[in-house]
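Ticket #4471: structure output looks truncated?

Reporter: J.K.
Steps to reproduce: submitted the chain below (757 residues) through the standard prediction queue, then opened the result file.
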Amino acid sequence: MKGILRMENKQGLISHWSFDEASGKEALDHVTGISDKIEYVLNEARYNDSHDPQRRKGISGNALMFDGYSNWIARPAEKMVILQDALTIEAWVAPRTYERGIESRLSPIVNQHDREKNEGFILGILRYGQWSMQVGLNNEWVEIWADGHELPLNQWSHIVATFDSRNAVMKLYLNGEEVATKSIVANTIITPCNRDLMIAKNNKGFLLGDTPYVLNMYSGMIDELKMYNRALAAEEVRQSYQEYVTPYGGAIPAIPYDDIKLDRCLLANDRHRPQYHLSPPQHWMNEPHAPIYFNGQYHLFYQHDPHGPYLHTIHWGHWVSNDLAHWRDLPWALAPEENGLDPDGVWSGSSAYDENGVPALFYTAGDDSATPNQRVGLARSTFIKDGDNDLVRWEKHPVPVIVQEKGQGYYGDFRDPFVWKDGDTWYLLIGSGTDGQGGSLLAYTSKDMIQWKYKGPFYISDPKKYPFLGSMWELPVFLPLGQDKTGIEKHILLISPLGPEADVEVFYWIGTFNKVAMRFTPDHEEPQLIDLGDFHFTGPSGMVDPKTGRKLIFTIAQGVRTSEINYYSGYAHNAGIPLSIFLREDGRLGIMPIEELELLRRRQLILIEDKPLDEANNLLKDIKGDMLEIRVELEAGTCTQLGIKLRRSPGGEEETLLYYDRKEAALIVDRNKSSLDPLADWDRGVQGGTLELDGENLKLQIYLDRSMVEAYANELKSLTTRVYPSRKDALGIQIWGAGTLTVKSLEVWEMKPAFES
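Returned output as attached by the reporter:
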């Protein structure tokens, strides 16, 4: 410590992290010579290859990337100089996202503080880019804010904060210019704090419920972080700024999106993370929604928290594809903003074409200061202005286009608008409930997308007959199916129930639509299921594909894992594969995976035709994989139960059995041996449901993608589930039957990832 004090007396600089290391798990402080450990969840990964903390191109050399939830630097308090009468903190920062700032706690650049005890100091960012230096002075907490000078996302900013006790002033500088000053009592010193010095993590961060997540953390890049035991003068600040930008012609360089985006390559070798299913680059997602086709590309959005693999600050993530098989990550489309419209979340919704044929997004705008706190927001693509064919940029309508009024559904539950245009009219359904009458959808119409007229309930369930439909409905989807065999136009209505007795799955009805009255009449009062799994096929969205006329459905495949496992994995959830639905000749709903998935086939591993059980399994013994497409047709013979084992270890210690029970007319998955990992106890058991085959052979189209298992049976039902084998050799396939059977055909393909590397 004495050596450190001599150096700071000479230079005034007490710490300098340049973050120029090309690799490794430490960051060198060039002043003290201390190499500080960089905490990071993938330093020693549980289910993945280990990775060093990420570096990206900085303002000078490299910068250190912070993921927003799992990586930070901590130095023990005893290794820090006590700073009392003067302090300067200087840094280059490029935030990638704003954390919600619960309890008005900052996402720190650096801090050593205890706000409740009025001790120490912190420099950090709040929820919309506001930034502040805060210090404890003589048992008071003093704050200085750069009001009107918010830090932009995905751009470099040079920030400097000074505390000067002798001259009784605190100052903030942005890009070389003073932007805030605050007078303080002369000769008032910073009250020391005995907590560790932390970079990117708040000393007093908010714990998110019963989870491992500590909030109020910084997300983005930090470069050239310096601390002084004196207050730099304004000219010194300007000079420092100019020295950094001179190599760039005197201007701050732009950051390419690829240099700051979340990197999905880090999770490519996670043994449970699906690779050809849609997923966020990292962190948390929920339902994909608002699919739309425009100028040769499919766009799909999704609920996303870019700050970590947990549900908190919700944005709209964004993918784009030319073919519904290969996808690209784009910057998120919508984010919460301090605009009085959606400060507390941009929740689910849908898309439609505006009067110019350009995409528009309708979403649930969250504002916890309003009653009700859920309204309908609108955002339009800027394509007309800038020709942005990737639809990266969106402009929000400044006020909600629909605010729920009392008497319109269950007041306060009002979300997930589904919108379509027919002729010169836009139609909107939104999820809600009805007092004493169960879940419902509310109907609206508009001639301009701005002014909407309430048309009453679209359809209401009977809670006494069907209590599993809950008291509120979410995520409505309403699509035309075409004419039945008698020539009557049919539509399908899909919903997700919510409430105390709700079964959280995707239910549907087929029926007729009265466009004038905006009412739906189902052909069958009892709702039906598309998928026979349990909570792994939820959150529906849909579209009519203008290229083919197909009716496409997208869903979320919940991971159903613990918060701890999500933390150590770096992600939560993924989408199911896109489905095509249609009306069969017999009036039932037909379902099938989209044919474009064949574009992801890497190579065929085996083709078997007309083989008995034992011979087929002998041919299969060397076929292994965890990213496969399997098509199999089984002729039952004497078997009353027949199917296939997946993710099977050589001795059968781990395996997942998918089978059809002919007596029960049921498609079933048995996961009791799916994993030996004790952490997987929450996802064992048997699930399934009714499937009437009417004497047909069992025909399964199976998509196996690491932990994902999706089976489509005879174009009638699906069964989606998750399995998390612990053994790395649990990669085998085996046909199973209690008796004799014939494998009429079996094809297995190895699959490629859906995202460009």
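Triage note (M.O.): checked the attachment and the full token line is present. Confidence is low (pLDDT under 50) at residues 1-10.
Status: closed, working as intended.
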